[in-house]
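Sat 14:20. Reprocessing the chain from the morning session after the first attempt stalled halfway. Input below, unchanged.
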Amino acid sequence: MTAARPKRSDLTTVALLTAVQRHGFNAWETLAAAYPPKLVQAAIQRDIKAGHLEYGVSLERPWLTPQGTWRLNADSRR
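Finished this time. Tokens:
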């Protein structure tokens, strides 16, 4: 039997934002070691649309917005 392929929902917003906070511009490499690169890209795009991340020249180098930082802080208080 074949293992289930990972989905974008497997990489939660909190997990992605935490990786960006902890690893900075190396978050892409860290996440791509655990998930397929296309999945990481889709998750980053999801959180850019939600206003949690921004990026400059490369989608692979996002940073947290104030809203993303607020989301992480709010989630850690739960």
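The longest helix spans residues 37-49.
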